[in-house]
Amino acid sequence: xxxxxxxxxxxxxxxxxxxxxxxxxxxxxxxxxxxxxxxxxxxxxxxxxxxxxxxxxxxxxxxxxxxxxxxxxxxxxxxxxxxxxxxxxxxxxxxxxxxxxxxxxxxxxxxxxxxxxxxxxxxxxxxxxxxxxxxxxxxxxxxxxxxxxxxxxxxxxxxxxxxxxxxxxxxxxxxxxxxxxxxxxxxxxxxxxxxxxxxxxxxxxxxxxxxxxxxxxxxxxxxxxxxxxxxxxxxxxxxxxxxxxxxxxxxxxxxxxxxxxxxxxxxxxx
Length: 270
Hints:
By secondary structure, this protein is of the alpha/beta class. It contains 10 helices and 9 strands. The strands form 2 sheets. It has a 5-stranded mixed sheet. It has a 4-stranded mixed sheet with strand order 1-2-3-4, with helices on one face. Strand 2, helix 3 and strand 3 form a beta-alpha-beta unit. The longest helix has 20 residues. 36% of the residues are buried.
């Protein structure tokens, strides 16, 4: 209704970006790593294409945070965050953050905010600022824990999607762009929704929640929560199947998280 046209491309296919450009293309928008498929896009290559055509590149960096990945160093024009996640780190507030040049913030973002009203409350801003004080410590410890948990799960479930694992198809690219792979990954239990929900119901330490970036370990079923609004065919096309689960690994002892996942997997015969 605002007269905006969109084209969807496979973000991991650099050639697809160039092929999708139309005379009225103004913006490239993508997230890397992507939620919940954990696809990793080549930021430098995509931003080069954008600049060559006078297109603004906007990257959602919420999964990595600026502590692990800095898209502007790869040519991004604008970087967006859900500050609800790692920046807060405690699941306390709804917040967002947008980074760009002073000119873009002043001439593009601020007029939009003034006319439409998405302004963060002072208290929520203060909470996020307090969370930022420990962001670097938290994200690195959680990334270490996530890698350990992901390695355990590789031998117990059908598939694990985590850029920190050598089995990830874009592992090398992720390690060039990111300092660590972050606290979040997805896994395919095998089977269908019954097996996925059975694992969730068997958890004792890990909480069931569709939030991410919390200091606690959280797990959710994307097909019935975060991506429920997508048509089934579209979900399946991008790999969001009924047996997919997304895990945010927290600050708990990684061995305790592994023990909880182990006993929950045994409840469904895995």
